[in-house]
Design brief:
The structure holds two protein chains of two kinds. By secondary structure, chain A is mostly helical. Chain A contains 13 helices and two strands. The longest helix of chain A has 24 residues. Among the domains of chain B are: 159 residues, Rossmann fold, CATH 3.40.50; 77 residues, no CATH class. Classes of the chains: A mainly alpha, B alpha/beta.
Chain lengths: 316, 444
């Protein structure tokens, strides 16, 4: 001995690191990922591998090109790639996956300063980009257990809910297990809920955001249509539960305080219902999250808590 | 009554020494007594090299109202007057006493106390300061009670820092002194209506003992606090026991509250009964580099080297030594530093544990916001520091109430990105304080 280390307090720190948090998210996403492979077979696996791989490589190359510190190790690029992959339908082309992931990582995240500095959710924005650019990325594909095991483009439950007759809607059980047309990872509500429980149990996210988001959609749908079954279908259709658990809970693009996050979730719910019931697109989850991302800093400011013992500045 | 839930942090407890009563260390060959071991003006040295002293003899006397005298902690000879560099960068005088190994006490007479004036005067001479770590002269605190209006007494037995069990041992071994001390305060501060004794739930035997001792005192209530850091912070314990909010820039006394550490009360009573001023204290020696954690009774001024040797800590394992616990303790730069009145613990960490991870970008997770007991937003201060030093930065810091930060360290502890949050807060507080002082001078 002879050299004492000197630093300022605190001298101990938690074991929870950014990469551990990201690893927990990947674990939570693994069940919906497995479900997607069960439901859609190899095309789903290909999409997942392509998106995750190109997200990681995009970040790697961007950091190399701009001579920045390498940040792939924090696993956040892998998370973005995985979240994006599971929100795409099975017939999306491999090159489209590459373009979408690269857009999400380079344009939405890295150009704004990298992890922690982007204002919009990379996965949600990447999905919107693909949806607007390529027709395939917006539709839904039937699972291996429908249409004689052929993966064909079919009307999604959300599109069916837009019609007046609701003909051809899958049963509620099929909706819960994911046996319906749509994106590969958004269907199996069961798998997503298990991921949700994992994230809450590991204290990665608080339960409020997903519950408030989904709850708002349920209540508003019920009020507008006055039909309980319709409201339940609205909750399970499209990417609502998936986005509520994995996109609306993103730390970087949501308010930092608990109250702010509740308001954020509420806003997402309202916008989703407005788009779904009154807009021209069948689905509106990604748009809702993107719009609320933009409002986040203002919500955060308005939801500041008065500190214990804080007096208003003008009163002093 | 509605009480908001304050932010808190799950910090490991490591109360390894809770079951081990303090044992005295071998008499050190010499002690070094700095004249500033408290908040306030340094004391004035009144001895000169060559003087013989016995335990309890005065070495330095209080130099002003907010100050505290220093007494010899061993018997022997004053060797020389030294300069001592404190962790805060100030150099103060210090008296080196070489021990004769006899540990002789001077003749003691218990003080004669008949009024609150007698009490504060006696306490002024006891050298007693807040032993929880702050080191505020106890006499000044009691003086506030003299002015009247003190209705609530909060005894702080939370001891929320990891490792430290000095207060735990006081409650278990000297609980009767605490009880008698409270009786004394009740007698001379008639305005006292309510007494809260706040103890964290992880010390059930202390809660039991205190409840039993205070069962005949209707005005006293033992409050079992959650075992979450930082329950022992003054503002937090006052809020969680009495429900009183101490506003920014104010003291507990402004709200009729007197907060005292349990060990301070016990020492106060010991002094009143025996007349022995503060010359030794219990020090917990624990940490990842300590194989056999212990509680030791240490003469004030004993060098850290001596205390660690007495605790059997191997030199090779020592990477970092802290005065206090790992959350708020101060790292020292030499093992020759003396333990002082406020040294309730020496936390010794291995070199590997002393190192903090490299910071990575803030991911806006909000853990610091949820952890802050006061409800502040630590990320806002770090962002403000990114603004050029202008009125904008200062306004932002003021708006976000930086001055309420008590530097408990919760934000830095929980940050998954290892951001130096509380460290930034300290910088920001200094800047804002300087700025405010500067603006005030400009106005005059």
């Amino acid at each position: 001995m002879n050299k004492l280390t000197v630093s300022t307090s605190p001298h101990i720190q938690t074991k929870v690191t950014t990469s551990r948090i990201m690893a927990d998210v990947i674990i939570a996403l693994s069940l919906p990922a497995i479900a997607s492979v069960v439901l859609y077979g190899l095309p789903a696996l290909l999409i997942i591998v392509t998106c995750v791989g190109s997200a990681i490589i995009s970040e790697l190359l961007f950091n190399l090109a701009t001579k920045r510190q390498q940040t792939v190790g924090d696993l956040s690029a892998a998370v973005t790639g995985l979240i994006l992959a599971l929100s795409l339908p099975a017939d999306v082309k491999v090159w489209q996956c590459v373009v979408g992931s690269a857009f999400a990582i380079v344009v939405v995240k890295c150009l704004f300063g990298g992890l922690g500095h982007n204002f919009a959710n990379p996965a949600a924005t990447g999905r919107i980009f693909l949806f607007l650019a390529f027709a395939e990325a917006g539709g839904g594909v039937s699972t291996r257990f429908m249409n004689e095991a052929e993966l064909v483009t079919s009307a999604t439950p959300l599109e069916l809910l837009k019609t007046s007759t609701f003909e051809g809607l899958p049963s509620l059980l099929d909706m819960f297990l994911g046996n319906r047309a749509g994106a590969i990872g958004e269907g199996c509500i069961l798998a997503i809920l298990i991921g949700f429980v994992w994230l809450v149990a590991r204290r990665v996210i608080k339960w409020e955001t997903p519950v408030i988001y989904v709850g708002t959609v349920f209540l508003l749908s019920l009020i507008v249509k006055g039909d309980l079954e319709f409201a339940i279908y609205q909750v399970m259709a499209g990417g609502l539960v998936y986005a509520a658990v994995f996109m609306a809970t993103d730390y970087v693009t949501t308010p930092i305080n608990r109250a702010g996050r509740a308001v954020f979730a509420l806003g997402c719910g309202v916008i989703t219902v407005l788009i779904r019931l009154f807009g021209s697109y069948p689905g509106g989850v990604s748009f809702a999250i993107l719009i609320m991302n933009i409002l986040s800093p203002y919500i955060e400011r308005l939801c500041r808590r008065r500190p214990l013992g804080g007096v208003k500045n003008d009163k002093k | 009554m509605f009480r908001r839930k304050l932010g808190k942090t799950h910090v490991p407890h490591y109360k390894n020494t809770a079951g081990t009563p303090a044992v005295a260390i071998p008499t050190p060959a010499s002690v070094l007594l700095p004249v500033a071991q408290h908040i306030g003006a340094p004391a004035t040295v009144v001895v000169k090299p060559g003087d013989t002293v016995k335990i309890g003899d005065i070495v330095a006397e209080a130099s002003s109202y907010v100050s505290s005298p220093i007494y010899a902690s061993v018997s022997g000879k004053v060797a020389k007057l030294e300069k001592y560099l404190r962790a805060d960068g100030k150099t103060v005088d210090a008296v080196r006493i070489e021990s004769d190994g006899l540990m002789e006490c001077r003749d003691l007479t218990p003080p004669d106390i008949n009024s609150i004036d007698d009490l504060t005067e006696a306490v002024r001479h006891s050298g007693l300061v807040g032993l929880g770590g702050a080191g505020f002269p106890t006499s000044v605190k009691l003086d506030a009670a003299k002015k009247g209006g003190i209705a609530t007494l909060v005894l702080n037995g939370a001891e929320c820092e990891p490792y430290i069990t000095a207060d735990t041992r006081t409650m278990l071994d000297d609980g009767e002194l605490i009880r008698e001390g409270v009786e004394l305060l009740l007698k001379f501060i008639p305005s006292l209506e309510k007494i809260y004794i706040g103890i964290e739930k992880n010390k059930p035997e202390c809660i039991e003992k205190m409840t039993e001792l205070f069962s005949d005192c209707e005005r006293a209530e033992v409050v079992s606090l959650p075992s979450l850091y930082p329950q022992g912070a003054e503002k937090v314990i006052v809020y969680n026991t009495a429900g009183i909010v101490i506003e920014e820039g104010k003291l507990p006394a402004d709200f009729g509250v007197l907060v005292m550490n349990v060990t301070s009360v016990a020492e106060l009573m010991r002094f009143v009964k025996t007349g022995m001023p503060l010359v030794s204290r219990t020090v917990t020696v624990d940490g990842s580099a300590v194989s056999e954690p212990k509680n030791l009774t240490v003469p004030i001024g004993t060098s850290v080297r001596n205390v660690l040797a007495a605790a059997g800590v191997a030199d090779d394992d020592i990477g970092m030594v802290l005065f206090g616990g790992p959350m708020m303790g101060t790292a020292i730069c030499s093992l020759d530093e003396p333990t002082v009145k406020t040294t309730g613990a020496l936390t010794v960490l291995t070199e590997a544990d002393a190192r903090r991870r490299e910071p990575t970008p803030c991911i806006h997770c909000g853990r610091c916001v949820a952890a802050c007991p006061i409800g502040l937003n630590p990320t806002a201060y770090s962002k403000a520091l990114d603004i050029e030093i202008t009125d904008d930065r200062m306004k932002k810091l003021e708006d976000e109430k930086i001055m309420l930060c008590m530097e408990c360290g919760c934000c830095s502890y929980v940050c998954p990105a290892s951001r130096p949050l509380v460290q930034n807060n300290r910088i920001a507080k200094v800047q804002l304080r300087d700025f405010q002082a500067h603006s005030a001078t400009l106005k005059n």
